[in-house]
């Protein structure tokens, strides 16, 4: 009760109610940091699915306000708060929990899930202009679509939206080889 509140709004600067069911309060050095459950999920998912250039390199989730790693007890508190909330727990965070929040064991036991998640996040979260070169490369490398050409004036957003499912499958297969 005596601890000062260091942060009382979520990452999009919306004020949080300390008594709301989707608000999580974390204590660090006698300061309270309030988070929305959705922000914590995004922070944890982003850290666990870190993979520059498709190389799987998960990092420990950190508090964005003070850059301190979430310790094991904090991660357990977050996990059980998510468990009691009326929503599904992310697969990566659940697997991290099953590994007792041990990063080496997590990577060893979940390499295929991490690869799949990495590719899915890349394909469905990247800007359409970024995906265009991958799509054209995919079409060029396939014997059945090699002769197809996409006009330069064809809308990039539409191209990306049409080919995202196919690009996801292509990158999944390409990454397994």
Give an overview of the whole structure.
- The chain has 177 residues and is mostly helical.
- It is 51% helix and 9% strand.
- The chain has seven helices and three strands.
- It has helices spanning 37-48, 72-84, 91-98, 103-109, 111-125, 128-141, 156-176; strands spanning 4-7, 23-28, 31-36.
- The protein has a three-stranded mixed β-sheet with strand order 1-3-2.
- A hairpin with a 2-residue loop joins strand 2 and strand 3 (31-36).
- Helix 5 packs antiparallel against helix 7 and helix 6 packs across helix 7 (156-176).
- The radius of gyration is 20 Å and the shape is elongated.
- The N and C termini lie far apart (56 Å).
- The mean pLDDT is 89.
Could you outline the blueprint of secondary structure elements for this entry?
Layout: E1 4-7, E2 23-28, E3 31-36, H1 37-48, H2 72-84, H3 91-98, H4 103-109, H5 111-125, H6 128-141, H7 156-176
What structural class is derived from the secondary structure elements?
mainly alpha
Helix fraction, binned, reads: 40-55%
pLDDT < 50 stretches? none
Largest sheet: 3 strands, mixed
The overall strand count is 3
- Mean pLDDT across the residues is 89
Outline: elongated
Order of helices and strands: EEEHHHHHHH
């Amino acid at each position: 009760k005596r601890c000062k509140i260091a942060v009382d709004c979520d990452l999009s600067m919306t004020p949080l109610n300390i008594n709301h069911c989707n608000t999580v309060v974390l204590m660090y050095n006698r300061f309270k940091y309030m988070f929305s459950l959705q922000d914590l999920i995004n922070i944890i998912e982003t850290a666990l699915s870190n993979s520059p250039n498709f190389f799987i390199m998960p990092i420990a989730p950190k508090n964005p306000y003070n850059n301190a790693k979430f310790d094991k007890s904090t991660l357990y508190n977050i996990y059980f708060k998510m468990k009691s909330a009326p929503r599904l727990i992310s697969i990566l965070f659940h697997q991290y929990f099953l590994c007792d929040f041990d990063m080496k064991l997590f990577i060893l036991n979940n390499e295929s899930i991490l690869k799949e998640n990495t590719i899915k996040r890349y394909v469905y979260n990247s800007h359409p202009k970024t995906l265009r070169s991958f799509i054209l490369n995919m079409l060029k490398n396939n014997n059945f679509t090699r002769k197809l050409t996409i006009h330069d004036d064809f809308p990039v957003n539409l191209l990306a939206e049409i080919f995202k499912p196919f690009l996801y499958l292509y990158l999944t297969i390409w990454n397994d080889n």
